[in-house]
Write a structure and sequence with these properties.
Length: 118
């Protein structure tokens, strides 16, 4: 029997509401925002939470100058269509693209995430 279950991932950021709205729109998950905390939740229960951090400094990827604390890989059917959609939501395409079956972006708080076709 498992000791624990995986209810959510918590991401540090300067503006939890803004980041929750970004990921909520990208994943089509329900967004719930309070003053210093926000979360997005799938209908099936998976959750990503966002915690406000004073003096937040985003990671610098791919260097380790300020290492990434985490990154999300999300599966998409069409890289070009998904890229256009996340850019419209406020993501930035990272200049370093080390693969062909995925693309690296930065969310509005500077966290790397990947759109992946497999």
């Amino acid at each position: 029997m498992a000791i624990a279950r995986f209810p959510s991932l918590v991401i540090d950021c300067p503006d939890p509401g803004a980041l929750a709205k970004f990921y909520g729109a990208m994943l089509e998950w329900k967004v719930d925002v309070s003053s210093d905390w926000a979360e997005v939740r799938a209908d099936y229960g998976q959750c990503i939470s966002f915690q406000q951090v004073d003096d937040y400094t985003p990671p610098v990827w791919p260097t380790q100058e300020l290492p990434q604390q985490m990154h999300l890989d999300v599966i998409v059917d069409d890289l070009d269509a998904a890229e256009a959609a996340v850019l419209d939501l406020g993501a930035t395409r990272h200049p370093h693209q080390p693969g062909t079956s995925f693309r690296v972006f930065l969310d509005p708080a500077g966290h790397p995430f990947c759109l992946c076709v497999n």
